[in-house]
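S2.1 Query sequence (Cys-tRNA(Pro)/Cys-tRNA(Cys) deacylase)
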Amino acid sequence: MAKKKKIKKTNEERILDENGIEYEEKNFNWVERGMDALKDAESQGIDPDSLLKTIVLQANNDAKDYLVVCLPVQAEINLKLVAHELGKKQVHLADNKKLVKITGYVHGANTPIGISAYKGFPIYFDEQIQKLDEISVSAGKLGRSVRLKREDLVKLVKGSYIKVER
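Output structure tokens follow.
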């Protein structure tokens, strides 16, 4: 009988383990599969609004002023509103070509868990997710996510809630 291949944990999963946070590993490849990934989630009984994307922003054109916003994958971020909420003159998307240098992750694998632990950037969550008990965020690898209690993640990354869309 063939042995089942054990999947190697990501650094982000190890961080959750070290902090005693329960999570479930999931695979939702939003970057490659788009709406089909949401259908996959729904077929597993998971609210698609609980799947979060992690957006890296740069404030005031300052090379050292980065921040992270997490919001449902289907939601649209309002950069002017985020800047207003944070008292910044302006915010814009971080340069995709420099994401690995900025965060250590490729586009689609950015995660508040690792960015908080390794980079210390402030982490913000769309205030609309406060109604959810569980959420899913990237596990630091394309297509791989962790599903955990919202309050556990927010506490771990010292996150705050803000309005990110009108």
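The first helix runs from residue 11 to 18. The first strand starts at residue 23 and ends at 27.
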